[in-house]
Amino acid sequence: MSTPWLIALAVAKVLPKKATPLIFAALGGVISENGGIVNIALEGIMAGGAFAAVVTSYRTHDVVLAIFVAVLTGMALAAVLAYFALAQSADQIVVGMAINILTLGMTAYLVSTVFGQPGASPEVPGLRNEAVLTWVALALVVVVHVILYRTRIGIHLRAVGEEPRAAATAGINVVAYRYAATIAGGALAALGGAYLSVGETHIYSDGMVAGRGFIALAAVIFGKWTPFGAAGACAFFALFSSLQIVLQGGAVPAQFLEMLPYLLTIVAIAGFIGRARPPASDGVPYER
Amino acid sequence: MRDALRHAAGPVGALALALIVSSFVMLAFHTNPIAAFGALLHGAFGSKQGSAETLVQTTALLFAGLGVAVAFRAGLFNIGAEGQLVAGGLSTAIAGAALHAPAIIEIPLCLLAGAIGGAIWGGIAGVLRARFGASEVITTIMLNYVAFLGSSYLVSGPLRGDLSAPETAPIAATAVMAPIIANTRLTAALPLAILLALYLWWWLGRTVAGYELRAVGKSERAARYAGVDPRVVIVRAMLMSGALAGLAGATEVLGLLHRFNAELSPGYGFTSIAVALLGATNPIGVIFSALFFGALQNGALAMQSLAGVPKDLISVVEGLVILFVAARKLPVGLMLARRPARIEGDS
Amino acid sequence: MIQSGPAAPPPALSAHGITKRFGSLVANDSVDFDVHFGEVHALIGENGAGKSTLMNVLYGVLRPDGGSIRIEGRDVSFASCSNAMRAGIGMVFQHFLLIDRFTVAENVLLGRERTRGGFTDRAAAESEVRELAARYKFGLDPAARVEALNVGARQQVELLKVLERDARIVILDEPTAALAPAETAALFDVVRRLRSEGRAVILIAHKLKEVMALADRVTVLRRGKVSGSLPIDRADAATLATLMVGKVIDLDAREPRRTAPGDVALAVRDLSVLNDDRLPAVRGVSLDVRAGEILGLAGVEGNGQTEFAEALYGLRPPSGGSVTFAERDVSRLSAEARRSAGMRYVPADRQREGLVLDFDTAENALLGDQRRTRRGMRLDLPLGQRLASAIDARYSLAGFDPAKSAVAYSGGTQQKLIVGREMTDDVRMLICVAPTRGVDIGAAATIHRRLRDVRDRGASIVLISFDLDEIRALSDRIVVFSEGRIAGEFAAESATDAQLGACMAGVSSVA
Questions:
Q1: Class of the domain covering C13-245
Q2: Under DSSP, is residue C218 helix (H, G, I), strand (E, B) or coil?
Q3: Alpha carbons C159 and C175: distance in angstroms, whole number
Q4: C367-383 burial code (b ≥16 CB/10 A, e <16)
Q5: Which terminus of chain B is less hemmed in, N or C, by CB atoms within 10 Å?
Q6: Fold agreement (C13-245, C262-342+428-511)
Q7: CATH of domain C262-342+428-511
Q8: Count of beta carbons in the 10 Å neighbourhood of residue C231
Q9: Which strand (E) or helix (H) includes residue C429?
Q10: What is the DSSP code (8-state) at residue A122?
C-alpha cells in the first residue's frame, strides 16, 4: 500500500479516540449555551469526571458504576456553576474559571491523598472496548439534535436561551430550564472526561484533559451552537491531532497542527467565515 | 480610611469563607487545617529566604494581576494573561540574548521588549473585540494555547539555544536583574511592580484617559456620548493589560530563569484572575491580594513537606475565592459588572 | 365609575384600591379600575403616572402592596403572569417579547406547542397560525422568522399570541407608539374587532386622539392616582388634558420673545441616517436653525427624531447629506469635535446615555468635557465639583453630594444633572430630546425658563419632544417629522392642533 493510504488508515484508527471526548463535552456545551448559560468550566468538569471514574473503578472495580459516578460528579460541578450564575447572579465566565481552577486543584490534591502518590493514579480497571462510548457519543448527537429542534423541551430551552422574558410570559420556568440544561451539560462533559480515563488510558493523571475542554468550547462556537455543527467541528479538530500523532516528525511541526483548532476558532468568532452568532441571551443573567 | 476598610470588607469576607470551606475539605481527608495553614504561614514568612521567595511570587502575580484588573475596569475579561506572560517572556529572552549593551540600557530595553510582546498578544484580542465584536473571553483563551504551542515550537526549533533542553540561549550578563537582597531571588522587579500599581491607581482615578477607560467599562453608550470612541479604549486597555502581563514574564526571565523555557510560569496568568478579583480590580487592592496569593503559592511547598498536605490545595482556595467574590448576593460579593460580549450600535 | 344596573353582569375585570410602592415612591395609590366585556377602556396619563405599574399588577408581573382584583366577580390573586393568562388575560407589551430566531408560528405557540407522537408538529402549528392570522386579516407568513419582520408585523405576532390563547381580557400597552400611520389604522380595526367579539380591551395610551377614536370609556391616572374616569361621550381633549396634568393648560402662555433670531447657524442639507438595524431612519431632511432660535421638532416617537439628533451631535454617521454648523461642514466630525465647537446634547435615554451611573456626581458633571477641561493629562476633578455645585444651586438636586454616585439619585434629579451640565452659558447649539420627561412640574418650569434664556443668549436650539405642549410653548418654529421626513413646517404662533395633528398623519398627540 502507498503512504497516503497508510496515513489514512492510521488516522481512521486514531480519529474516533480523539473525537469522542470532544464530542461529549461539546454536546454538553451546546445544551447549556442554548439555555443561556456559558460553560467555560468544561475543562474542569471533564477533569472532575475523569478523576471520579478512576477513583470509583479503583475502589469497586466496577467500570459501569465508575462512569455513573463520573456523570454524577459532572452534574454536581455544573450545579455549582448554575447556582452561582442563577441564584447569585455571578458572572458566568468568572464562575466557570473558578470551577476550572478549583477542580484542577482538587483533583491533583485528591490524587495525592487517595492514591498516596502525586501526579497520577495507578492503572485501574477500565472499559475493554471504549468504542462503545464513541457510538454513544454519535447517538447522542442525533438525540440532542432531535430534542433541541423537534420537541417541546428543546423549543422551550432555546426560548429560554434567546429571550428568557418571552419564555417566562409563555409560562416556561426559565430558572428550572437553565439549571437542567447546565446540569445535563455537566453530565455530558464528565462522560467525555470518563472516556479519557477509564475509557482510553485506564489511569488518571494531572493535566490529562490538556485543554480538551477549551477545544470543545471552541467546537461549540465553530459549530454555531448546534449539535451537528459542534460534533463536526470536534471531528475536524480531532483530525488535526490524529494527523499530528500519525505524522510525528513530519514536515509540519506538531505544534502547528495542535494550534489549528484555536486559530480557526479565533477566525470563526471574528466573523471571517460567516458570523458565529450565539443564542441571544447566552451569558446574560436573568433577573425576574 | 473608613472607605478603604469598607471596600476591603467584601474581599476579606470572601477570603475567610474560602479558607473555611477548604478547611472542611482537609478535615474530610483527616488532615488538620490549622497545622496545614500553620505550615503554610511558616513557609511563606518563617525565614528571610521564605519571605523573599513569597515576594518573588508576589511580583509576577502583581504584574499580571494589574493587567487583568485594568482590563476589567474597561469591562473586559482578559483570561489570556498566561499567554501574554509567555509572549512577554519570550520577547524578553530574545532581546536579552541578542542585545549586548550596558545594564542600564539593556535591562530597560529587555523589559520594554517583554511589555511589547505581551501588549501585542493582548492587543490582538483587543482589536478583534473592537473591530469585529469577537468576545475577548474566547479569543484570549484560544490565544493562550497559541502562545503555549507557538513558544514550544520556537524553543524546540528555530530559537533553541541549548541542545540538552528546549530553551532559548541565555540572556547577556548585562541583562540579568540581580537580587536586591543577598542570598535571595528578590529583584528590583518588586518595587517596580509596586510603583506601577501606584501609578495605575492614580492613572485610573485622576487622568482623562483613566476616566474614559472606566466610562467605557461602565457604559459604552455614555462613553460614546462623551466623545469617547470605545473601540480605541478597548484596544488601549487590552494593550495595557497585555503589557503588564508581559512584564511578569519579562521579570521572570531577567531575574530568575535568565532564558525562556517551559518553567516560565506555574500558572501566574490564571492565578492573576483571582488576584485581580480579590483586589476588587483596584490597583492598591491588587498589591495586597498579590501578596496573599504569593504567600499561598510559596507556603504551599512547606505545607506539603511539613504538614503532608498536597500543595494543590491552594488551587482549591484560589478557586473558592473567585467563586465567593463573584457571588453577588452573598454579602462578600463585589457586584462585579461586565459588559455583554457584543458591541451595541456599531460593528 | 359607570353606574351599572342591578341586573348587569359583573365587570370582566375589576381592581379595587390597588396600591404599589417602590421604596418611597407610590406608583399606584389605591387605584380603582374596571373593564366590561365588549368594551374598550382607555387608561391614559403622562409618563410615570403609574399606567404600566397598574397593568403589570393586573397581569401578575408585579404583586400589589394592597387592593384586590376580581375577574367576573371572583377574587383572584396572581403569583405570576401565567396565572393571569390562565384567568383569561392577555397583554401586548410595548417592548415586544419575541424570539427573533424563531418563526412566527413558534413564537405564537410558545409554551403551547402542537405535538404529534411526542415531537413538535410544525405543519399543524403553521396551518393553525395561518388560519388565525387570516381571521384577523394579518398578512403574516407563519414560517417566517421574526427577525425579518417590521414593527407592525411583530406587533401582529404579539396579538396572535394573545388571541391564540383566546384571552377574554386584552391589555394593549401603548400599541401605536412605534407604528406608522397605516399600521395604526390597521391596528384600530383589530381593536374594534376584538370589541365586537365581546372581549374586554384595556388600551394604554398617551395620545388623546387615539383614545377619542377607539375607547368607550377613559380613566386618567396622575401621579399614581385616578384623577378622573368618564365615558367617552362626556370627554373631550381639553378635559382629559386637564385631568392628566392637573391644571388647565393655557396654550397662550407663550412668552413673547425679547430678542430676534440672528443668522442661520445650523444648516442641514439632505441628511439621511440609518438606524441600528441599518434601515433608513432619516430620509433626506433639510432645515436651517438660526442663532437665537428654538426649532421645535414634533412627531410621534420613533419617526427618526432620535437618529436625527444623534446625527447632529456626531454619534451616528450620516448615510448621505451634510450638516453645516457656523459655516463649517461638520458632517464627518466626531462628537468630541462638535462639543468643542459649542454643541451640546440632552439625550433621550438619560440612564444609559447621558450619565455613567456608577460615576460620582462630580465625575458626571465633567462627562463630555473631560478632554476640553483637562489639565495636562489629569482630569480636572475640582472643576467637576464646582460644576456639580453650580448645577445644584440652579436646579436644586435632591440629596446632592458631589461624591455620590449618579445611580443614587431619582430619575428626575438625574435629568436635572444632565440638563444642568449641557445648558451652559456658552452653549452655541443645543440638541434636546424630551428634556422634561419624568421630571416634576417645578423642575420642568425651571428647565423651560432656562431653555428660553439660553436661546436669548444667541444659542440655536433643536427641541425634540413627544409632548406637543412643550413644543408649542417653547418653539419659534415647528417642523413635523413623519417616517424620517419633514412632513410640514409651521410658525409656532399660528399652528393649530388640527394642522399639526393632520401633519403627523392622524396619530398626533393633541393633549
A1: alpha beta
A2: strand
A3: 10
A4: bbbbbeebeeeebbbeb
A5: N
A6: yes
A7: 3.40.50.300
A8: 11
A9: strand C429-433
A10: P
The sign of the CA dihedral C146, C147, C152, C155 is positive
Let me know if residue B337 belongs to a domain: no
In a domain, residue B309? The reply is: no
A274 part of a folded domain: no
Write out the residues of chain A at the interface with chain C, using a CB-CB cutoff of 8 A: 146, 150-152, 155-156, 158-159, 162-163, 165-172, 280
User: How many whole angstroms separate alpha carbon C23 and alpha carbon C298?
Assistant: 35
Q: With contact defined as beta carbons under 8 Å apart, do C227 and C244 qualify?
A: yes
- Per-residue pLDDT tens over the stretch B171-195: 999 999 999 998 899 999 999 999 9
Sheet with C280-290: strands ordered across: C280-290, C264-274, C320-325, C328-329
Position C257 pLDDT exceeds 80: no
Do the domain assignments include residue B73?
yes
Residue C465 contacts residue C440 (beta carbons within 8 Å): no
Interval B217-230: pLDDT, tens: 999 999 999 999 99
Strand partners, C477: C295, C491
Total structural domains in chain B?
1
Question: Chain B contacts of C355, Cβ < 8 Å?
Answer: 219, 222
Q: Quick check: B318 and A258 CB within 8 A?
A: no
pLDDT at B343 exceeding the cut of 50: no
Please give the biggest Cα pair distance in chain B: 60
CB crowding C68-86: b at 16 or more within 10 Å, else e: ebbbbeeebebebbbebbe
Q: Does residue A205 fall inside a structural domain?
A: yes
Block residue for cell numbers 452534574: A75
CA dihedral (C311, C315, C318, C323) positive or negative: positive
Task: Provide the residue ranges of all domains of chain C, joining segments of one domain with +.
Answer: 13-245, 262-342+428-511, 351-425
Under 8 Å CB-to-CB from C436, ≥6 apart: which residues? C415, C443, C444, C447, C448, C465, C467, C470
Distance CA B292, CA B278 (A): 10
Domain of residue A185: give its range: 3-269
Going by pLDDT thresholds of 50, 70 and 90, the confidence category of residue C313 is: very high
For residue A234, being part of any structural domain is answered with yes
Q: At what angle do helices B268-278 and A92-115 cross, to 10 degrees?
A: 120
Domain total of chain A: 1
What CATH code is carried by the domain that includes residue A95?
Answer: 1.10.3470.10
Q: Judge whether B223 is closer than 8 Å to chain C, CB to CB.
A: yes
Distance of alpha carbon A75 from alpha carbon A79, whole angstroms: 6
Please list, in sequence order, all residues whose beta carbon lies within 8 angstroms of the beta carbon of residue A263, skipping any fewer than 6 positions away. B142, B146
DSSP B177: P
- The DSSP 8-state label assigned to residue B59 in this structure reads H
Q: Cell numbers of A142, please? A: 442525533
Cross-strand bridge partners of residue A205 = A120
C230: alpha, beta or left? (left if phi > 0; alpha if psi -120 to 50): beta
ipTM: 0.91
Sheet holding C169-173, edge to edge: C89-92, C169-173, C200-205, C39-44, C217-222, C225-231
Tell me if residue B150 falls in helix, strand or coil. helix
- Residues facing C18 on adjacent strands: C31
Min mean pLDDT across A114-118, A230-234, A260-264, C257-261 is at C257-261
Q: Which helix (H) or strand (E) holds A232?
A: helix A227-246
User: Which chains does C contact via 3+ CB–CB distances below 8 A?
Assistant: A, B
Q: Is C398 left (phi over 0), alpha (psi -120 to 50) or beta?
A: beta
Could you give the CA distance from residue A114 to residue B201 in angstroms, rounded to a whole number? 45
Cell of C336: 468630541
Q: Do A155 and C110 touch (CB under 8 A)?
A: yes
Residue among B214, B225, B228 with most chain C CBs within 10 A, to mutate: B225
* Helix ranges (DSSP H) in C396-440: 411-422
Q: Sort out which chain A residues have CB atoms less than 8 A from C120's CB and list them.
A: 150-152, 155
What pLDDT sits at residue A162? 94
